[in-house]
Amino acid sequence: MDETKIKELVRARYGGIAKGEQANCCGPAGCCDGGDAGDVTRMGYSEAEAQAAPESADLSLGCGNPQAIAAMRPGETVLDLGSGAGFDCFLAARQVGPTGHVIGVDMTHEMLARARANAARLGAANVEFRLGEIEHLPVADATADVIISNCVINLAPDKAQVFREAFRALKPGGRLAISDVLNTAEMPAALQADPDLMCKCATGAAPASRLQAWLAAAGFVDIRISEKPESRDMIAAWSPGSHVEDYVVSGIVVARKPA
To answer: What is the domain extent for residue 47?
Structure first.
């Protein structure tokens, strides 16, 4: 698929999920938790975190917990790439406190509407949501202390551009903390051509070596990419019988913009 078709597919699918007009893209188990819908503890969140955000903000569309690796501090500005219904944004808002600020960016109108409704319900004055593509972030240069993202960059057709934009949006010394899906072996053509597996965070995944190269080319330093082999059982539930878990794995990506 070309870039336009990929974006149309992703926007339509996630818009439907946001409105409740169709099931989670990976079925009732959730896109990337592999268990009961809404059970984000399977992705590394604590029980306290699971209870802290509105239930309507948790659509089980992630593949990890970027909160655990971002080390956010009071007063910081956080930028969430592909913020969905706002789950990670609301957790980040608790960490940065009233003197901090959280900006969620999403390209899906329906997700933004849901996130903004959740923010109003919470009275979250330090959180805002902006319409935009993560390849072209609607923020000024040197805006964020921290950039987080949860199982979204794999959906972007031009990942190198995403990292260039992330570098631009970070303040000097700022950091990137991402949970995403990594490609570990060449995927058969039949799986690569399956549009459902695109939505399910599988066919768009890139290998760690390529992510490393893109991040370095963008200017990042202290790049660390690690796989979570235990996630293969979770991934097998996305598309039972396809053996997609033989080709992708959940992982974490951290990097820093030089001061």
So the answer is: 3-256
